[in-house]
Structure formats: structure tokens, C-alpha cells
Design a protein that fits this description.
It is a single chain. The protein is 4% helix and 21% strand. With 399 residues, the chain is mainly β. Mean pLDDT is 77; it is low at 198-203.
Length: 399
């Protein structure tokens, strides 16, 4: 049958669809096919499975509904707005700014949260305008350091491992700290109550500046290398705001200045008296002051020999306050250190009255030096009972 304009027009009534037809109108299903006789949608361009460009629009094209495509080719210009979710199913990973499933030449503004399933590599500076928490399941690596200008750095759980140096400008509060190297600080603050195993785990605490400690227990030797001399209670290499208790000897290399009262609880001292007369009738006789009234700092005076043995080296004061017997002639006593006389007192009197013979000696002594009193002329009066102690020998360590 010959195709005429009339038959073409008639075909529109029932739908056009001949083999090789350019236009197919399916009135039954309200569909139009371009380049296909089997349109599957309202408008179908090209046969299903055909390759190449099926629809080319020279001017502007506008879609007020949903535009769905297997892929897009070409450049998108102007603003692209989507009110729904934008899904990019390409799985290409990114290693640079020009690789990956989504490549953006300019910046990206994101109003809400962002979640990244793998790593983030940032070539520039990361700036947080208002961040409360940064949550990371894995490692956070900062190639050029981590700086907290306010708020500080808080590690509430786990272990913080620092491979290189840790520099802290202010006061630092830490839980358990394990260090294989040296911990150095300009000052230490705190009670130090949990500093344990210093002798076994750490060689010591080294500080080159001023340090403040509360309770410190040291089992080894503590050395202070600072050479600052002391001229008051607030100067010197070591300063104590409170008192200092020392169980054993204290050696001071220079001067010792005391502004308060000097009290030595075990300072060697003694006092003894004579209870019977003694004379020099048979030569120099040791005066044995056989009744001891007082002694501290050890059992250093012997009431059976009348000898005081110096327990330590130092400067001593000895006093022999004697009363002579009521006999005619001169009376004289001497004080000896060993066999050497260190003091002598003599009274010349022809009467038979009792005479006072006082003798005071300040003497530098060594440990184990023996001090005693001998009568070389006349006699020494001794008293017992309720009478006063007329003849006494006493002494004490000055320092």
C-alpha cells in the first residue's frame, strides 16, 4: 500500500509503528518512541541496549521532575542543587587531589557532620572553629605536632606514648608515668606521696632549678650541686621552711650561724662533788669527786677514778670549784688533760680558815682525752649529809 499523507495521519489514531519507523506513537499506553517501535516509558529514545548518543539537545533543557541516568558525561556549569541524598557508587580510592571517585577542583563547604571510612590526608592547616570532642577509633597522627592553646590535653584512659621529648611549660597533672629516660623540670609541685621504687626503678631526681617538695623519702644519697652560699634562712642551695631532724652526725664545711637558741639534747655534761677530805700529804693526789649529781650525753665521768673522758672532739669548759681544808699554809690545785696541766689555781694564806679555790678552763679536746683535778699543795674539803657541796668538779661541751 502506498504511504500517503492521509494514511500517515490515520496511523496517529491507532499509533504509528512500522519496521524502521523513526517515530512510534503508542496511543494505548500513552507512550512515544523515537528510534524504537517498543517504547517502555512515556518517551523512549533509541532501542534498548543501543550505544551512542540517543538524545542531543542543542539548546537549554529543563526537567521539573526526576532526571535519572546511568551516567553523566560532560561538564556541569552553574549551581547544582540536590534536596535528596547524592550517591557516588564509584569505589576508586584517593591518593592525591586529582584521584578518587569524587574530584573537586575548588573548596567544599559542609554544613553538618562528615564521616570518613578510611584515612584523611591534609596538605595544609586544619582549623577547628568550635570543636568540643574529636573522636577517633584508630590513631591520630600529627606530623608537625599537636598544640592546645586553651583547655589543655586530657588523656582519661589508656596509655599515652611519646617517642621523643615532651616539653611542658606550666603545671602538669599526670596519672601513671613510665619513663625510660630522664624526667627534668624547672620545678616540681605536689605531695610526692606516690613516688615509689625510686631506688630500684629510677637513678634519682635531677633538677637544675628551684624545686618544691612536700613529703620526700630518700633511701640513697642526695647530692645538691648548687654552690650558692647561705647568709640567712631564705638563702643557699637548700632551703627548708620548717625544721630539720638529723638522726646522726652533721658536718658543716664553713661557718655555722644560729639566730635562735642552741639546744643539744645529748650534749655531754656532768657535775660531781667530794664527800670526804683529801690532802697532798703523799704527793700530787687525784681529787676523786665521788658523788655525781648530774650527767648527760653518756656515762663519761667515772666516780671511782675522778676522770672525765671526752666522748667527742670539741671545745669544752671545765670548772673545779673547791674549798680548802682549814689547815695552815698554801693550797694549790691543777687540772690535767692526760698528764699535761691545762690550768692551775693557788692561794697563799697563813691562816687556818677555809679558802675558796676556783679554777675554770676552756680547752679544745679530742675524743677520748681524759680530764682530772689533782691537789698539789694543802688539802681539799669534802662534805656530806645536809651540808652544801663545798668542792665540785663539772664540765660540758661548748660545741
Amino acid at each position: 500500500m502506498a504511504i500517503t499523507n492521509a494514511t500517515r495521519l490515520a496511523d496517529f489514531g491507532t499509533g504509528i509503528g512500522t519496521d524502521g519507523a523513526v517515530l512510534k506513537v503508542d496511543n494505548t499506553n500513552d507512550r512515544v518512541g523515537l528510534g524504537t517501535t517498543n517504547p517502555q516509558n512515556t518517551v523512549t529514545v533509541g532501542a534498548v541496549g543501543a550505544s551512542g548518543t540517543s538524545l542531543f539537545v542543542h539548546g537549554d533543557g529543563r526537567v521539573t521532575g526526576v532526571l535519572t541516568a546511568g551516567n553523566f558525561s560532560g561538564n556541569l556549569t552553574g549551581a547544582v542543587t540536590s534536596s535528596g541524598a547524592l550517591t557516588v557508587s564509584n569505589t576508586t580510592a584517593s591518593t592525591t587531589t586529582t584521584t578518587g571517585a569524587l574530584i573537586v577542583s575548588g573548596g567544599v563547604g559542609i554544613a553538618k557532620s562528615i564521616f570518613v571510612g578510611e584515612g584523611i590526608s591534609v596538605a595544609g592547616t586544619i582549623t577547628y572553629n568550635d570543636v568540643t570532642n574529636i573522636d577517633s577509633i584508630g590513631f591520630v597522627t600529627a606530623g608537625k605536632g599537636l598544640r592546645a592553646t586553651t583547655g589543655g590535653l586530657i588523656v582519661s584512659a589508656g596509655v599515652a606514648t611519646i617517642g621523643a621529648k615532651l616539653s611542658v611549660a606550666g603545671i602538669t597533672s599526670l596519672g601513671d608515668v613510665v619513663s625510660s629516660g630522664i624526667i627534668t623540670a624547672d620545678s616540681y609541685y605536689g605531695s610526692g606521696a606516690n613516688l615509689t621504687n625510686i631506688d630500684a626503678g629510677v637513678a634519682g631526681v635531677s633538677t637544675t632549678g628551684f624545686s618544691t617538695f612536700k613529703d620526700v623519702s630518700v633511701q640513697g644519697i642526695t647530692t645538691f650541686s648548687n654552690l650558692t652560699d647561705s647568709t640567712s634562712a631564705t638563702t643557699g642551695a637548700v632551703q627548708f621552711s620548717g625544721g630539720v631532724g638529723i638522726a646522726k652526725k652533721l658536718s658543716v664545711g664553713a661557718d655555722l650561724a644560729l639566730t635562735g637558741k642552741q639546744t643539744i639534747s645529748a650534749q655531754p655534761a656532768f657535775r660531781a662533788s667530794l664527800t670526804s677530805n683529801i690532802t697532798s700529804a703523799s704527793g700530787d693526789a687525784v681529787v676523786v669527786f665521788n658523788s655525781q649529781q648530774f650527767e648527760q650525753g653518756g656515762d663519761n665521768y667515772d666516780t671511782s677514778t675522778g676522770i672525765f673522758t671526752c666522748p667527742v672532739a670539741g671545745l669544752y669548759m671545765f670548772i673545779a670549784s673547791c674549798t680548802s681544808t682549814a689547815v695552815h699554809g698554801d693550797k694549790q690545785i691543777e687540772m690535767l688533760k692526760g698528764s699535761d696541766a691545762i690550768g692551775r689555781m693557788r692561794t697563799a694564806n697563813d691562816s687556818t680558815d677555809y679558802q675558796s679555790i676556783p679554777l675554770t678552763v676552756v680547752q679544745q679536746c679530742s675524743a677520748n682525752d681524759e680530764i682530772k683535778v689533782v691537789v698539789t699543795l694543802g688539802g681539799i674539803y669534802g662534805s656530806t649529809g645536809g651540808e652544801s657541796q663545798h668542792s665540785q668538779f663539772m664540765g660540758y661541751l661548748l660545741g
